[in-house]
Amino acid sequence: MGCPFPFPGSGAQSSSIGCIVRQATCDVVKQGLEDDAMKERDETEKRIREIYAARRRGSVEEVMATFAPQARFRLAGNAALAPMTMPVDGHTQLRSVMNQLVDAWDWSDFMIEKIVVDGNQAAVYSRGPMRYGADRQEIETEILDLLTLEDGKIIELVEFCDTHMVSRMTGLGA
Fold first, then answer.
1. Whole-prediction pTM
2. Interval 74-130: pLDDT, tens
3. Fewer CB within 10 Å: C terminus or N terminus of the chain?
4. CA 133-106-154 angle, 5° bins
5. What is the rounded distance in angstroms from the CA atom of residue 46 to the CA atom of residue 44?
6. Sign of the CA dihedral running 60, 66, 68, 74
């Protein structure tokens, strides 16, 4: 089968040169697109690490600055665990929830283990010790977050955690 991109001119040699030139051009363009995608992935991962660092520092203002105004947050779980598993929409409701979470939970030693980025979405696997309540009762746990980002801000966060443990420690949904 001949070259699908024949080089202008005559003969097989001209056609072969055309295919080589066009293939090289396609390879360069493809590499450029792959480099752009890798750069975008790296930038998204860096932003996610900044977002989680704000959470570990326990600053509600810093945490709120990571969410877009129309953001949605939801702790994945059965409706029987409401209000813990009810979706929270927008900054006003989100600020109330974040105030409660930051006051009640100490995330300072909780660390990211893995981030998988696909376009504007990411899965973040974290684990470590968390402390709850005034007495800072410590538990070792793991969490998987699914994030959607837009312009570097979270527009949706679904958090998968041990809802039984959270329910037992907080008394919510019990």
1. 0.75
2. 988 887 777 778 899 999 999 999 898 888 888 889 899 999 999 999 999 999 998
3. N
4. 120
5. 5
6. negative
